[in-house]
Design brief:
3 copies of one chain form a homotrimer. By secondary structure, chain A is α+β, with helices and mostly antiparallel strands. Chain A has one domain: 2-Layer Sandwich (60s Ribosomal Protein L30, Chain: A), CATH 3.30.1330.40. Chain A has a 5-stranded mixed β-sheet with strand order 1-2-5-3-4, covered by helices on one side. In chain A, helix 3 links the parallel strand 3 and strand 4. The model of chain A has no long low-confidence stretch (mean pLDDT about 95). Chains in contact: A-B, A-C, B-C. The interface between B and C is medium-sized, with 35 and 29 residues.
Amino acid sequence: MEHETRFLALNLELPPAPEPKGVYTPLLQVGNLIYLSGHLPVNSDGSLHRGKIGKDIDLEAGKLAARQVGLTILATLISNLGSLNKIKRVVKVFGMVNATTDFEKQPYVINGCSELLVEVFGRENGIGVRSALGVGSLPENVPVEIEAIFELTEE
Amino acid sequence: MEHETRFLALNLELPPAPEPKGVYTPLLQVGNLIYLSGHLPVNSDGSLHRGKIGKDIDLEAGKLAARQVGLTILATLISNLGSLNKIKRVVKVFGMVNATTDFEKQPYVINGCSELLVEVFGRENGIGVRSALGVGSLPENVPVEIEAIFELTEE
Amino acid sequence: MEHETRFLALNLELPPAPEPKGVYTPLLQVGNLIYLSGHLPVNSDGSLHRGKIGKDIDLEAGKLAARQVGLTILATLISNLGSLNKIKRVVKVFGMVNATTDFEKQPYVINGCSELLVEVFGRENGIGVRSALGVGSLPENVPVEIEAIFELTEE
């Protein structure tokens, strides 16, 4: 696995890994799967991307927020596993988009996260199944929340 | 397993299996589970059912769209696995309904897919767990998106 | 495992376990995981909590509804497994909140369920991964629907 090498070469700036907030944990291993909680777009200074797409922010800002969720997911993985080489592949991405009720481009928004995962894990292991949907509202009025499942390498 | 026999006897018209669109795959196997991406209601000519329930289309059109999603899921399974006899059972159906905010009949809509799965996989293996919810919006303004998990037969 | 002892000491009043409604089942075991269907807030008399948060009911009523969903989940687990000692731990909680589009406190609402699960399963085993999102609408206009995954003890 060269995920860690590829990740380091990308020279990405990661936000701080989200702290467990009382009654849930950001990450849980069951068998060889890593379940991730719904992650929000955390900036490097700890603040959040905010706004509803189509009302407060536009499509491109939404896609950037999804990429920032991806960076936050990477921060959680590295903080908990030590190295991205522990990851075999992306299994599933579930992308929730906070948008007006006439919005139709949820897949384009979630690509912001998916494209990052391909950059880091490669085409063979970075592409999993995915759903993209428009939700009514999200915590702190963030534009995007994403939950995910990863598979671990055999040890 | 007589799933394939039952499927053929039903003489269903399947849409073309959705192509992988760049940064996600329609289907992924992990262990003995098959994870399916969120599927949309694809018609036989490749077009999509469109419209929000309670605004653009009615309840029955919504249920028909959910059945069409089920047919699209079957197309993905057959295209990727070769035969429905590779499937042991339905594990989970997650049904997202694009409706007005006063809508209350999401389970009735998603039954359009669930009833098809029972026709094909039988009562013992065609009934899994399920969630049905109303979302704010969906890609291309389709009425229904469904993701699912199936269990494979032992080999 | 002392889950059953802890549960009995809490002296909780459980609603009747939801009946399988035709084309889905409330609970399904796959390997050592228990998948639960989306559960609604069922009261002890079989009626449902109703209303959209921010329109029909307030934040605290929403959190109470989430706790009631948790009690309904416990009813399903006990009805199907016989004892909560069969459960090793909470793996995942997926909390859908029926709220107005400006709502931002989905995690606070879903804590109503998560805190109950910690009371019953303890801090070590009662805390899993979680997503909390605001949906456009829910079946029967309930305020909260929650689906979950639990891990079984080894036998």
